[in-house]
Amino acid sequence: MWRPSLSGNISGTDPLKDNRLLLKAEALDDSHEARNTAAVVNELSKEITKILVSHPVNARRVAEGKNIANVVLLRGCGIRIEVTPFLGKHGLWPCMVAPTKIIAGLGLSLGIDILDAPGATGDYRTLLTSKASTIAKALSAPLQSSPKVFVPGEDELKAGRPDGYDFGFLHIKAIDDAGHDKASILKVKALEAVDTAVGQLARLLWETESSGKYQFFLCVTGDHSTPVEYGDHSFESVPFTMCRLKDFVGAIGESTIRQISLDPFPIPNVKSGKDLLDDLETKERRDKHCQPYSGDSVYELNEVAAARGCLGRFPGGEMMGIIKKFLSLDAETA
């Protein structure tokens, strides 16, 4: 939150490369607020290092001959922007699970409730099952039996949602991390883990929907590409898919959905020297058991395949409009 004499217009302390010195925050304009904020951040960094160096955990690491954690990297400074809340703009009561704080910060700026998922982190060690179950529980709280797009009044915006949520956002960071780390095998493993988590989410939501009081929709997409060859964000279009949960269950098979294990699982460790081809199916093997269910001919979620989809290409700013149109059309035909 913005405070007097502070500014978001400063540089970060993260050198963005290993084995480089911590940077000093610098004011990016000549204002008193920017200079003051940079000075506060630099002093904070010094105090953090003092505390960490003498921390008992680091004392044990030194005794074990391990490197110590002696800095906190600060980057992406900003202020909470003043925008129309998600509820007011889209007419859907939103919640999100996003341990990555920059994503959670965006959610807070939009008035989205941030849910706590025990064991969920913004890295490879995250418990995806916890994320899936937290979102499923929030969306399964009592609410209207059919999708409903509405624009609430000011009093409703202030009062909050007493009986559950209409929209849940689940963010997963590990795949992006693998791209930054140029870790091809780990990226594949992270994608496979997300596949499993989507299955768990589908099972949990289907158990609720099959009671006859709910109807859910799934949407899977990303915010950007992070190719392992480049190790950073790039400009490619990202895949986008959405469907009614009952159609997803119909494509997979209800018996298959109900047999999906809800046991927590980690993203598998990758052994050094492991060949990526050891675990990858060939296109021929995939084609034997993969086929489009409905809508168009696409049955893979990747940049190239999705470009052939019936939605074509569209800018990110149109995404929520497309989602709400899909909900409205389904409600009209129900």
From TrEMBL:
GO terms for molecular function: metal ion binding; phosphoglycerate mutase activity. Residues 163-242 form the Metalloenzyme domain. It holds the Pfam family Metalloenzyme. This is Metalloenzyme domain-containing protein. Keywords: Glycolysis. PANTHER family: COFACTOR-INDEPENDENT PHOSPHOGLYCERATE MUTASE, METALLOENZYME DOMAIN-CONTAINING PROTEIN. Belongs to the BPG-independent phosphoglycerate mutase family. A-PGAM subfamily. It comes from Sphenostylis stenocarpa. InterPro entries: Alkaline_phosphatase_core_sf (IPR017850), Metalloenzyme (IPR006124), Pglycerate_mutase_ApgM (IPR004456). It catalyses: (2R)-2-phosphoglycerate = (2R)-3-phosphoglycerate. Catalyzes the interconversion of 2-phosphoglycerate and 3-phosphoglycerate.
